[in-house]
Specification:
Blueprint lengths: L1 H36 L5 E5 L2 E8 L8 H6 L1 H21 L3 H24 L2 E9 L2 E2 L5 H28 L1
Antiparallel strand pairs: 1-2, 2-3, 3-4
Helix pairs in contact: 1-4, 3-4, 4-5
């Protein structure tokens, strides 16, 4: 009975620590980019297809809803924070450790953007990929965490589907 309660307590703590660590990593990188690397703001070419370019996104992915969110960034940040909290609850309730890790990674990246939006009224982006006149929207480390968590979640779901099919036969 005592071991069960330790496991129940340990999982939320691990989820909180992973989300906090990813959030703090993202915020630290954004701080360094804004206050040291991009002071003064400029484009720093790294390769023929990649630059460091400071940008501020008042909207969500790909600057969607920029106008609506620019008018009330903190309420939107609070709404996004509720979504992150929902992800944390989902990760806690997940039966599979890999599924929980994937969801927590998404929550960690999202929390970095939520805190950034709440404090700075927009999300700080700095990674700029481009090729032959085509440019991907500028993004940040938190966005990478969200995408990696989502890809990991897809991989986990395929693994779970494979396990379900093998037990059905």
């Amino acid at each position: 009975m005592a071991n069960l309660s330790i496991g129940v307590v340990k999982k939320p703590v691990l989820i909180f620590l992973w989300v906090a660590a990813l959030c703090l990593l993202d915020l630290a990188v954004k701080y360094l980019v804004v206050n040291h690397l991009m002071d003064p703001p400029r484009v720093i070419p790294i390769t023929a297809f990649f630059n460091l370019t400071l940008a501020y996104n008042p909207g969500v992915s790909f600057s969607l809803f920029s106008d609506a969110m620019a008018s009330a960034p903190r309420p939107f940040a609070l709404l996004q924070g509720c979504l992150v909290l929902g992800l944390v609850v989902w990760a806690w309730k997940a039966k599979d450790a890999m599924e929980s890790l994937a969801i927590t990674t998404i929550a960690g990246g999202a929390s970095g953007n939520v805190v950034d939006r709440f404090l700075n009224l927009s999300v700080t982006d700095y990674l700029d990929f481009h090729l032959y006149g085509w440019s991907w929207p500028t993004f940040n480390l938190a966005d990478i965490m969200i995408v990696c968590g989502a890809l990991f979640m897809i991989a986990v779901s395929f693994r779970q589907t494979g396990n379900n099919q093998s037990t059905a036969t």
